[in-house]
Backbone:
């Protein structure tokens, strides 16, 4: 039954003959399995296909029902929660984001933010809580294979607020918790610039740097979920901290606006903006020809080149993808990054910028949930 369902999930409408050719099973077995899958709710029977010349009874036509249920992907961070709802082929049906007051907010308030994002996304997808088969959740902390969050750093510990237990107890869903960079790697391998690349590294580099790795098409996890954590970058000459691109752009821009510094349009932003200088403003100023902003981004690109060189020396990926909230603007970093990388490696990996934007973690959470459905489909109860 699982083999037939797997073929149908990857295909459009199929006949019994199609399934026989794909699985090698006997016709009687295929038809019996299809009838069982129809009764279980996974498959629907379509009207027979019309043929110009046809002898005998029309062929029965079957199709996997991708809307018999949905999956949810969540990205839970310190400032916001984003929820995606997808059908069982991975088509995104709705997205919702809710802001919160940082990781110091009470746990109840943060759980309520998750609930608001979920409710809005499900409503926009015209789906009910009962339609959800699995939820995947990404957080910026190491997660072991049993779903336990590491407590070796205060920030990691602050993310351990009982998300899995809350959703399981309220809705009865299987809830899968995973590290955000690992999910980013899954998303890129599934539908990003890393699609089809089996030796892949994805660098989430917004506020802090973290890596997710695929080796021979399999996600690297580590004994306690810490594969890809790079907290000791202070040991790397020319790097010094695990700060990411956005954090560096802001800090370097503020430093560049001090008294007697070279003229820059960033100084005007620093004086007039209520929120100060954002990373997006630095990228925008550089694109408009501001020399100081261009120098800042050149320095960041070279710094990231050193980070990639250290990682690639150990992991030997074919492709490194820069992902996260600032990835859309990060193409300007590629030239200095690649130049610096070439100084340290004779055959460096290819480096590209993600096209998935700030949805990269939630898409990975969707992929995690879909993988669970595909593996455990026959044990899941459908509300049909």
Residues:
């Amino acid at each position: 039954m699982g083999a037939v369902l797997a073929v149908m999930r990857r295909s459009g409408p199929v006949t019994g003959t199609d399934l026989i050719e794909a699985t090698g099973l006997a016709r009687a077995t295929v038809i019996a399995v299809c009838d069982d899958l129809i009764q279980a709710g996974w498959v629907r029977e379509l009207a027979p296909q019309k043929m110009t010349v046809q002898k005998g009874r029309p062929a029965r036509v079957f199709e996997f029902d991708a809307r018999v249920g949905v999956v949810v992907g969540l990205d839970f961070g310190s400032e916001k929660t984003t929820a995606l709802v997808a059908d069982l082929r991975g088509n995104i049906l709705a997205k919702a984001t809710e802001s919160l007051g940082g990781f110091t907010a009470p746990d109840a308030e943060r759980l309520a933010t998750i609930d608001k994002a979920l409710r809005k996304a499900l409503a926009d997808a015209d789906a009910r809580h009962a339609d959800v088969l699995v939820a995947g959740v990404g957080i910026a902390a190491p997660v072991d294979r049993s779903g336990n969050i590491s407590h070796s750093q205060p920030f990691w510990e602050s993310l351990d607020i009982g998300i899995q237990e809350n959703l399981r107890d309220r809705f009865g869903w299987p809830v899968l918790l995973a590290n955000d960079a690992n999910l980013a790697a899954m998303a890129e391998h599934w539908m990003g610039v890393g699609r089809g690349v089996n030796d892949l590294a994805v660098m989430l580099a917004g506020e802090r740097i973290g890596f997710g790795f695929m080796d021979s098409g399999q996600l690297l996890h580590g004994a306690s979920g810490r594969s890809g954590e790079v907290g000791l970058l202070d040991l790397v000459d020319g790097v010094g901290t695990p700060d990411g691109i956005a954090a560096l752009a802001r800090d370097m821009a503020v430093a560049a606006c001090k008294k007697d510094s070279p003229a820059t349009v960033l100084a005007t932003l620093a004086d007039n903006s209520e929120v100060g200088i954002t990373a997006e403003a630095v990228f925008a100023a550089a694109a408009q020809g501001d020399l100081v902003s261009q120098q800042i981004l050149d320095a960041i690109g070279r710094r990231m080149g050193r980070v990639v060189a250290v990682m690639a020396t150990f992991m030997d990926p074919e492709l490194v993808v820069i992902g996260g909230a600032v990835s859309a603007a990060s193409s300007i970093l590629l030239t200095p990054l690649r130049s610096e990388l070439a100084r340290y490696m004779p055959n460096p990996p290819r480096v590209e910028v993600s096209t998935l934007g700030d949805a990269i973690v939630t898409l990975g959470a969707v992929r995690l949930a879909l993988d669970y459905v595909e593996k455990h489909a026959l044990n899941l109860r459908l509300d049909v």
